[in-house]
Design brief:
2 copies of one chain form a homodimer. The first copy, chain A, has 350 residues and is of the alpha/beta class. Chain A has 2 domains: 1-132 and 302-311, Isopropylmalate Dehydrogenase (3-Layer(aba) Sandwich); 137-299, 3-Layer(aba) Sandwich (Isopropylmalate Dehydrogenase). Helix content of chain A is 48%, strand content 17%. Chain A contains 12 helices and 11 strands. The first copy, chain A, has helices at residues 28-41, 53-62, 86-92, 97-106, 119-130, 165-182, 204-215, 226-231, 241-266, 270-290, 316-331, 334-349; strands at 15-20, 45-51, 71-75, 112-115, 140-147, 150-155, 189-193, 219-224, 236-238, 298-301, 306-309. In chain A, strands 3-2-1-4-11-10-5-6-9-7-8 form an 11-stranded mixed beta sheet, with helices on both faces. The radius of gyration of chain A is 21 Å and the shape is globular. The relative contact order of chain A is 0.16. At the A-B interface, helix 8, helix 9 and helix 10 of A face helix 8, helix 9 and helix 10 of B.
């Protein structure tokens, strides 16, 4: 019996990650080689590939790999598709690779789960199977975005469309504990996403949240605006899931537009193509700095278990990064830190 | 007496724009040369420069220009600063260049007003002086953003932090009428900014707004996501001012970060600098495609008069574009179109 019944909290020495091998746009074509590449680089980690046994086996064969003491297959007969409504995936696909991978976290056979599948289903099933941490009302999705001076963590990115100030306070605590754990920052700064720096700005929920954050023991920076995300003004940016999702998707759209336009301009004629060739090493260096694959892996926070959501379109490199994030969260005791802070908060309130 | 008492609705043949010459980070150093440049190119327009007489005169002299039949000065003794709280600017600075410029629209001496000053003050004063159009409860800020295939109009960008479905419906009508007027599109497509394409996505306000939009006579495309803004999926994107402001500022931050990183990479060493020199014409072409100056000029919609807000940091080119937008809105009867649609709507409801 673990403190707070947090699944897979102990056994840091021997970390096991359950991978929903069928999830994502490319399924085992990405998840299996990513797992193999990760294992080659990380001899201390074990991986369980969850999904259709024969499909996973043939993918392993294609990579001249086989199961062994650190890599095993856990069969699951069903697959949650990207179009499955979360409620249906939860109710009707009890032997899906996604659900079985989460079950392994619940039972303690794995310390974390990584899936590139349907976000809504992953959230619904994780919440149902793992349950919430004490005193946390809502789970949140936290992701990393690049900034001028490094990166920042933003949450919630879409789990909650309507939030109360208390929900946002809890998100702030979870985000701060995530950053303090995986980045070894004792007191990460927290910004509240708003439409102006002044206290009088924003809607009622945001104003009340600022009040709660000021009274909390978090390192509250104050209100931040959309551009502060990419300026890297704070270590953590807190917002409700509607706003966070719009900010994230808008960023994806803008980055895609800029990338497409740059390509169009360099492909315009023979001279611009030559210029592109000359500039290629520089452009590649730039690209690697903003490469979204490096930031792949969103944390589903607030659950009694570590669950990482990879982008559905992730390639092998990106999916490997999501596995790495899961391992880092286990290794640095993210769940324990969140739990401790939440008990401090509830003791303070009591 | 004009229909609906819309100030400056008539006299399209002889358009007069009142410019808050003192507004913005650079005041007359930008507004005066922008006005002069605009007049050179547009012989059919009259401009009234509103502000401190001597300051404007000396700026005119610096450009070897003088007042004349198409360019005059209207003295105003006060200036609204960027830090003035809107309520104080409204109450205490009754002879500010901003207020006097808006007064000229109210009195019919000008057909539109352009200001690069304090957005909150501009909104508060415009609303107080000009009043709202019939059946419109809230003004909205609409701006143009570049897309892969042209551009799109997004509103609200920050005037309203809490919106009802009816407010959002009114924004949709105003946005659609703006686009139909200035872009001569008979039935522009309207997208509702949400966190998923499916009907079940989003918060209650958004779901109810979708229902109103489906029942309206607008060309409602359905839900759009953040990335659809830059894909140019619809002609108009509707959202509340909190979400819109975050999307806009996040975009500004990301664009700024990408631009800075590109510059950093090209300035890294002598080889990258040479590559940058070779790539310069291509990079400049790219830059001009996403040049925010081309999109300068946000419309304050819903008022009984045309008011354009220029970015505070606008340069001459950017400010000229804001003047051009004001003239286009007058020329194409934006206010009349919005009023007509709103009466249709209220007749339909009655």
């Amino acid at each position: 019996m673990q403190v707070y019944e947090i699944s897979g909290l102990d056994c840091y020495m021997d970390i096991t990650v359950a991978i929903d091998a069928m999830g994502g746009d490319h399924g085992p074509h990405v998840t299996v080689p990513a797992a193999l590449a990760y294992l080659r680089r990380n001899p201390e980690v074990n991986i369980v590939l969850v999904g259709l046994q024969d499909v996973i086996e043939s993918e392993l064969q294609a990579h001249k790999a086989a199961i062994g003491p650190r890599l095993r297959i856990h069969a699951a007969s069903e697959v949650v598709t990207m179009d499955d409504p979360p409620a249906l995936a939860l109710r009707n696909k009890k032997d899906s690779s996604m659900r079985v991978a989460i079950n392994l976290v619940k039972s303690g056979e794995a310390n974390a789960c990584v899936s590139a599948g349907n976000t809504g289903a992953l959230m619904a099933i994780s919440r149902f199977v793992l349950k919430m941490l004490p005193n946390i009302e809502r789970p949140a999705i936290a992701s990393i975005l690049p900034t001028l001076n490094g990166h920042t963590h933003v949450l919630d990115l879409g789990a909650n469309v309507d939030c109360t100030p208390n929900h946002l306070l809890q998100f702030a605590i979870m985000g701060a504990m995530l950053v303090s754990a995986v980045e070894h920052k004792p007191s990460p700064t927290v910004g509240l996403l708003n439409i102006g720096a002044e206290d009088i700005k924003g809607n009622e929920v945001v104003k009340q949240t600022a009040e709660l954050l000021r009274r909390s023991h978090l390192n509250f920076y104050g209100n931040v605006e959309g551009d502060d995300i990419y300026k890297g003004t704070t270590d953590v940016v807190v917002c409700d899931g509607f706003v966070g999702n719009v900010a994230l998707k808008t960023s994806e759209g803008l980055a895609q537009m800029i990338s497409t336009m740059l390509k169009q301009e360099f492909k315009r004629n023979i001279f611009t193509k030559l210029a592109g060739l000359v500039a290629l090493p520089v452009l590649n260096r730039f690209k690697s700095r903003v490469d979204h694959r490096r930031y792949n892996g969103a944390s589903l926070l607030g659950l009694r278990g570590i669950v990482l959501k990879s982008h559905g379109s992730a390639d092998t490199v990106a999916f490997e990064n999501a596995i790495e994030r899961a391992v880092e969260e286990v290794r640095n005791g993210v769940l324990r830190r969140i739990s401790e802070q939440m008990s401090l908060l509830s003791e303070g309130a009591a």
